[in-house]
Amino acid sequence: MEIILKQDVNNLGLKDDMVVVKDGYARNFLIPKGLAILATASAKKVLAENIKQRAHKEAKIKTEAGKVADNMAGLKLTIGAKTSSTGKIFGSVNTIQIAEAIQAKGFEVDRKNIQLQEDHIKEVGTYKAKVKLHKDVHVEIEFDVVSE
Fold first, then answer.
1. What H or E segment, with its residue span, contains residue 145?
2. The CATH number of 75-147 is which of 3.40.50.300, 3.10.430.100, 2.30.110.10, 3.90.650.10?
3. CB-side neighbour CA atoms (13 Å) of 125
4. In CA terms, which of 39, 85, 101, 110 is 20 to 30 Å from 143?
């Protein structure tokens, strides 16, 4: 029986995949649980239209993320931290502080989308962070950690 998945199903496929499964598995498990629908001619047309519209929306979002990445490309941040006389930071610089510094420059970025190249930043210096704006669009930002 040919079905269209409405959700991701482990060991079977992802959302909007058309798969062939045994009749009992489809009738007794997938369809009653709302995980799939029958792949009729009308359902296939609806699926094709949904995929087309989603691709159009994804392309628009990706171009907008690309524009933001171009604007952020030359961004240089300065993050102040309390330090000892030898340049060691009390605590460490994390993604929250970087996200706040980026927001101060006028860009909206979630801290979960910021990835530091080093695990812990515990000294004064220049570092780089990778900001994920879209699954295919990344921008690298350079930031200085200075003593307050």
1. strand 137-147
2. 3.10.430.100
3. 11
4. 85
- pLDDT tens across the length of the chain (148 residues): 999 999 999 999 999 999 999 999 999 999 999 999 999 999 999 999 999 999 999 999 999 999 988 988 888 999 988 888 888 888 888 899 999 999 998 888 998 999 998 878 888 999 999 999 888 889 999 999 998 8
Beta partners for residue 79, in sequence order = 145
Strands 18-20 and 2-5, bridge-based pairing: antiparallel
Fold classification of 2-68 is Ribosomal Protein L9; domain 1 (3.40.5)
Can you name the residues that pair with 11 across neighbouring β-strands? none
Domain boundaries, the chain: 2-68, 75-147
**What are the tokens at 24?**
């009992």
Q: How crowded is residue 66: how many other Cβ atoms within 10 Å of its Cβ?
A: 15
Q: Cα 46 from chain centroid? A: 27
Judge contact between 1 and 21, C-beta under 8 A.
yes
